[in-house]
Amino acid sequence: MNKYMTMALATLVSLPVMADDINETINAEDDGHVHVSNIAGSVTVTGWDREMVSVTGTLGRNVDELIIERHGDKVVIKVKVPRHGGRGIDSDLNISVPRDSSLDVGTVSADIEVTEVTGEQGLQAVSGNISTEYFGEDVEVGAVSGDVEVSGNGADGDVSASTVSGSVTVFRASGRIDAESVSGRVTVDEGSFDRAELGSVNGRVTFEGELQDGGKMEVETVNGSVNIDITNRVSGRFDIDTLNGSIRSCNGPKAQRTSKYGPGWELEYEIGDGDSRVEVSTVNGSVSVCSK
């Protein structure tokens, strides 16, 4: 064998095995349930007006198989990988589902992005960012290490968004919201809420939106400032306290020290005779509360 043939064969042997392309479809109910599991890579889900689920993208070179099954009104999509995991398992899934489907998506090291899906959603990632849209059905989104973002259309419903290490951002949601981060900021922008529970251990909390009549807002941080701008006229009671930080209110009196000799500030006041409640507490951080 001449040296050129030997070099050519050596080059071929050293080339990595390429990822497999995916192009699969399966019939589905227009308001059924879709379950997706992918260890590593990415998951992108888009709603469409067809009674089928389509999966395209690429499978990692060391993936065992892609499972796509239907059981009644449920479609299961799962990337099966070797028990030992390892390299070459990153898979990128682009999934189209009936628009009114409910979703259950779980990943370990993969980003999740959902658009134009109007059903209930449960999205969980260990290490990855999550972005989704909200149309009034319940949405529960959680990450261990990654940013979480929910964008709504103002419809009422329940939104739960949390992360351990990362930021949480919620736009134009309404109804009830529970948003929290251990290490990162929490931002709620626009919307009208009956119940709002917001918190961060190490991060700033910002709220700008409406509080409905009789609504309740609870905000708590350990190391982080709080900035609340209630954009409608609220009638109710405000209770604010901080151990190390200032308190400013556009509507109430000045804050008072909790002790003559120790740290701490508190502020309590009422506007009108309504039964709305706003409670804010922080250990290390300033608080600003304003309402029309």
Q: What structural category do the secondary elements indicate?
A: mainly beta
Shape: elongated
Give the beta-strand count. 23
pLDDT < 50 runs, ≥5 residues = 1-18
Strand fraction equals over 45%
Please give the count of helices: 1
Oligomer: single chain
Secondary-structure blueprint of this entry?
Blueprint: H1 3-14, E1 20-27, E2 33-48, E3 52-59, E4 65-71, E5 74-80, E6 91-98, E7 102-115, E8 121-127, E9 130-134, E10 139-145, E11 148-152, E12 156-165, E13 168-171, E14 174-183, E15 186-202, E16 205-223, E17 226-230, E18 236-244, E19 247-249, E20 256-257, E21 265-271, E22 276-284, E23 287-291
Parallel strand pairs: 2-5, 2-6, 2-7, 7-8, 7-9, 8-10, 9-11, 10-12, 11-13, 12-14, 13-15, 14-15, 15-16, 16-17, 16-22, 17-23, 18-22, 19-23
Antiparallel strand pairs: 1-3, 3-6, 4-5, 18-21, 20-21
Annotation keywords:
1 helix; 292 residues; disordered N terminus; elongated; mainly beta; nine-stranded parallel barrel
Describe the fold and architecture.
The chain is mainly β and 292 residues long. It is built from 1 helix and 23 strands. The protein has one helix spanning 3-14; strands at residues 20-27, 33-48, 52-59, 65-71, 74-80, 91-98, 102-115, 121-127, 130-134, 139-145, 148-152, 156-165, 168-171, 174-183, 186-202, 205-223, 226-230, 236-244, 247-249, 256-257, 265-271, 276-284, 287-291. A hairpin with a 7-residue loop joins strand 20 (256-257) and strand 21 (265-271). The radius of gyration is 25 Å and the shape is elongated. The chain starts with a helix and ends with a strand. The model is unreliable at 1-18 (pLDDT under 50).
